[in-house]
Amino acid sequence: MKTPLITALGLALLSTAGAHAGNELAGHEMSKAQHVGMRADASYEIGALRIEKPFSRASLPNQPVGGGFFTVTNTGTEDDRLVAAGTSADLADHMEIHEMAMEGQVMKMRALPDGLVIPAGETVELKPGGYHLMLMGLKQPLVMGESVTISLTFEKAGTIEVPLAIGAPNAKGAGHGQMTHGN
């Protein structure tokens, strides 16, 4: 029964190594504008909200879902709410806002159909194992070193497009296992 796990791990290592090797060659042909979308310290603002360190993880072959992670700080005096997230139809069928939480001894994931509150004066972190975005029905792999653009819609601040830098399949934050390039 260990064969499927070993096969999956082997495929993950091969796809990550192959993606990294290809990006090292192609990386020198990327424009400075493309590199900006992959910076670990990237920050985007809309209204009273600041979105920082947006990233995703590279997907395995035929993986049907992906995740989106970032921090959002509300510098305003009123709560706001992340009500929707989206991406192009050629990347995924749709996106959902999710949370993972312990229920007794079991970790459960559930969609947040009413969105995610961003309290005034606070920072909310979307991260692996907690709040996060789910790219459902991936139509193409998420490749380490590349980026994909998503849109985030907030109840009060409006809609903003943000690039997610794609890190390693096990990345825990922006810049973990990503390509790095000088300015």
UniProtKB/TrEMBL annotation:
Residues that span the membrane, as ranges: none
Recorded superkingdom: Bacteria
Alphabetized Pfam families for the sequence: PCuAC (PF04314)
Keyword Signal: yes
Signal peptide (UniProt feature, chain positions): 1-21
PANTHER family cross-referenced by the UniProt entry: BLR7088 PROTEIN (PTHR36302), COPPER CHAPERONE PCU(A)C (PTHR36302:SF1)
Species: Alloyangia pacifica
UniProt-recorded name of the protein: Copper(I)-binding protein
Annotated keywords: Signal
